[in-house]
Amino acid sequence: MEIFFSGSIRGGRDDVDLYAELIGLLEQHGTVLTEHVGIEDVETKEREAGLTDVDIHDQDVAWLQQADIVVAEVTTPSLGVGYELGRAVAWEMPVLALNRPESKHELSAMVRGNDAIEVAEYRTVAEVEPVLEAFFERTR
User: Fold this and answer.
1) Are 94 and 119 a contacting pair, CB within 8 Å?
2) Is 39 assigned a ligand-binding role in the annotation?
3) What is the mean pLDDT of the chain?
4) What's the mean pLDDT in 61-78?
5) Strand 2-6 to 69-73 pairing
6) Is 4 annotated as belonging to a binding site?
7) Looking at residue 33, what DSSP letter applies?
8) 93 among the known binding-site residues?
9) Residue 110 marked in a binding site
10) 60: left (phi over 0), alpha (psi -120 to 50) or beta
11) Residue 58's domain spans which residues?
12) 47 has pLDDT over 90
């Protein structure tokens, strides 16, 4: 199974370590196409590779099209994550959005109110494991 993981990059990197942990869990279920989201200095690496915004967009959309499912950590608001979720919903892909309710940011109604996106609230990574198990079981 090919998995598209989405998390904030330019919207804020406070959760990069959490993203890396979640990617580790996801790798138990398949290939994570976007494991770079869990790398601390991803923007520096993109610049060093000479990637333009167009390159990044096209690459991410290609990975999204290739994926079987989408899992997004949506606690940190991100225009890019929202864009990716919108595309995934339009393409009728299974989407799981993970959100920590104690955040200072309230989850957008455009995500929480969309019945094509399964939203799961959690406080610890350990709480995510059974959520992922159930999600993968339903989407196989």
Assistant:
1) no
2) no
3) 96
4) 97
5) parallel
6) yes
7) T
8) no
9) yes
10) alpha
11) 2-139
12) no
CA 20/CA 22 separation, integer angstroms: 5
pLDDT at 74: 97
Q: In the chain, how long is the greatest CA-to-CA distance?
A: 40
Query: Is residue 70 classed as helix, strand or coil in its secondary structure?
Result: strand
* CATH code of 40's domain: 3.40.50.450
Question: Which residues on adjacent β-strands are paired with residue 31?
Answer: 2
Indicate the length of the chain as a whole number: 140
Is 109 annotated to bind a ligand? Reply is yes
Q: How far apart are CA 135 and CA 106, in angstroms?
A: 23
Both tokens of 134, joined, read 């159930």
Number of domains within the chain: 1
Report the alpha-carbon distance of residue 51 to residue 36 in Å, rounded: 14
Query: Of all residues in the chain, what percent carry a pLDDT higher than 90?
Result: 91
Query: Is 10 labelled a binding residue?
Result: yes
